[in-house]
Amino acid sequence: MRTLWQDVRYGFRMLVRNPGFTIVVVLVLAIGIGANTTIFSVVNSILLGSLPYKDSERLVMVWGSYPKKGVKETAVSYPEYLDWKKQNTAFEHLACYNYWPISITGGNEPERVFGLQVTADLFPLLESHPLHGRTYGPDEDRPGCDPVVVLSYGLWQRNFGRDPDIIGKIVKLDGKSFTVTGVMPPDFEFPPNMTAGGRTIMYQIDLWIPLAPYAYDKGRGMNNFLSIGKLKEGVSLQQAQTEMTMIASRLEKEYPDFSKGRSVNLVPLHEQVVANIRLALIILLGSAGFVLLIVCANIANLLLARATGRKKEMAVRSALGAVRMRLIRQLIVESVLLSLIGGLLGLLLTLCGTDLLVALAPRDIPRMDRISIDGKVFAFTLTLSLVTGLIFGLIPALRASRPNLHDNLKEGTTRITTDPGNYRIRNGLLIAEVALSLILLVGAGLMIKSFSNLLSVDPGFREESQLIFEIQLPAKDYPEDHQVRRFFSELVNRVQALPRVQSVGAVNYLPMIGFKITNNFTIDDLLPSSSSEKPIAEFRSVIPGYFRTMGISLLAGRLFHERDAEDASRVVIISESVARRHWPHESPIGKRLSCAPLADVMRGGWDGSVVSREIVGVVSDVRHFGLKQPMTEFIYFPHGQDPWLLMTFVLKTVGNPRSFVAPIRKEVCALDPAIPICNVQTMKEILSQAIERDRFLTLLLGVFALLATTIASVGIYGIISYFTTLRTHEIGIRIAIGAQKKDILKLFLRQILILLFIGLFLGLAGAIVVTRIMASQLFGVSPTDPSIFTGVSFVFTVVALLAGYFPVRKATKVDPMVALRYE
Hints:
Elements: H1 2-17, H2 19-48, E1 59-66, E2 71-74, H3 78-87, E3 91-105, E4 111-118, H4 122-126, E5 132-133, E6 148-151, H5 153-160, E7 170-173, E8 176-183, E9 194-196, E10 199-201, E11 205-210, H6 212-215, E12 226-231, H7 237-254, H8 256-259, E13 263-268, H9 269-274, H10 278-308, H11 311-319, H12 324-360, H13 375-400, H14 405-408, H15 420-455, E14 466-472, H16 481-496, E15 501-507, E16 518-523, E17 536-543, H17 546-550, E18 554-557, E19 571-575, H18 576-582, E20 592-595, H19 598-603, E21 611-619, E22 634-638, E23 646-653, H20 661-671, E24 677-682, H21 683-690, H22 692-726, H23 728-736, H24 741-770, H25 786-812, H26 816-820
Parallel strand pairs: 4-11, 6-8, 17-22, 19-21
Antiparallel strand pairs: 1-2, 1-12, 1-13, 3-4, 3-7, 3-12, 5-8, 6-11, 7-8, 9-10, 14-23, 14-24, 15-17, 15-23, 16-17, 16-20, 18-21, 19-22, 20-21
Helix pairs in contact: 1-12, 2-10, 2-12, 2-13, 3-7, 10-13, 10-15, 10-22, 12-13, 15-22, 15-24, 15-25, 16-20, 22-25, 24-25
């Protein structure tokens, strides 16, 4: 330890004695280590961190599924959940819940919030306890009980000023009185943002109420609920899956009309939360790792060059009795000191980098708000710094610790042109830099092309000066369909009358931000034997004007109009994909299909009956669930015949769309002052949010690729400059015996090209392997796209040749007399 401390002190003196070299190396290391630490802090919080629930590894989502159809995640019906709960032995608790948009009144203005209708099993399942009061039990989670509610800390703070006497008070939700039983702590959230049913669910939940009063009368075909369970200790996921599959088989035999072909799929909750982002984060962490490897290769080359000036020092130490291991240790200590200082600076960059990363990150990445610099991140940075120091310091230390005493102790001997080993190592490191940089550049190029393709996708509607807002009518105040129709019809007329409003329409769930409402239908005269064999489509209720306002094209027939009212014959409009699938060689206009009354589905009162409807129009397809998703099959219903309590309005305006918010709020208040408008956005903002994850990944990969290219270019410049300096004497001789400057230029550029082409070959081979990993993140581009591989190779070749050209050009201008005296 005494001699090690001597090595540390001597290493510090050497770094201080060469401030220029030290600053450059530390800064480059800080960039490489800081990038890796920043991405690791995200990975640590999202992928490696446990969910904020006790025994969270035992929590699983319990999905319905249709294995033969390839459907792995569907919602469940309340009777199905009750059967699962009664018959299973694998779960300690099994809970069921449903998202519930609701208006809360009593403040200055009504506010729309998201709540959760959830069975009383949830809180024991999560082992979560309220900050104030209590949750609710099974006796309060049944029909006929007095309504109770548990508030989130945010809602309690925002709407009730953290009233300490809130417990027992009455709050109005959708016009109905609820008694507050508890307030959850500030760090409690359920459910977390997650990917479910093929889409990302992300809502801030502000309150929880009992589910049973709202679900007890919903039929077995009403698959509107999600289910979560906590495995008993000692029960594996596979054991639970086997038991639930057997239960599903029994239910299939008992209820063939509803459960034919239906099974159960268990997914760990942590997997449900991170599944959609895991690969992207791994790609980013791998890219940051490549940048660090390029940094290591670059610094190793710098240390090899620096070792040339210390050959006499090493020779003297060796002559005085220093063994080789002592010399290696001294040099490794210096490298590790450099790396630790770079790691410390990199950690400081991480503190700023994580804030920037959170600000740039898309909203649908789960748990981004929980990113922090904890003990794991510190340990990672320390370990990475030590390993990095060993990686870039080992080869130079091994080479420098074997000095040639006879040559190096001679006065004035500094050239290493006779040492082919150093050349081979430097060439190898240069090739590695080129190969690693090319892999990163190819990956970034593929993401850029993928993102460009995404921007050019036709979503099926036009993004113009459109304002979007939602209106949710409380079922208590609007229990009859005619009341719902009257309110929305009057609101449309009032908004349409506003100056500079060109057109108005509405749909229950808008493209890019809507829920799924998937249901069966049958084609008249072609009735299948069971519901599992019926075709399915997305159902939407629309107010006339929606298609025109959104720019959705009419392909055949007509659009809805005001005459499609309650007392008119039942009609629907289908999307192009429905027509193509079921009437490929004939017009569907005038054909009939049968499906459930949409209003009954909304209110949960569907008794299984269906209504025959005439197809009066065909409209173009819409990418409803994302620009990367295929066109979805839709059946549209006129709101006058199938009213919906929640409607999303679309306004096409002249001028700034957001300037219409205040007039619209005034018109809504004139109709019903208890109704809030919410989710006010423009269509441009919605489309921007739809691509923000791809934009984020493309941006970070582009930054890493730019860093890699810059560092590699600087490395090429530095090593070529060093090579030409070492060969100054040789250049002088060549010029003296008649060599032209272009001959010297060709000599060095030929050597650069040989190294460059070897690196390009290895880099392209590596890119073919690595880019296959990111195939699922690409859109409309192959992971081995030849145009990207060719273009990136050409661009990098030009950059590398420019980096090598300038030091070579400088070497050709050397004075032969000066060069011949150079030693």
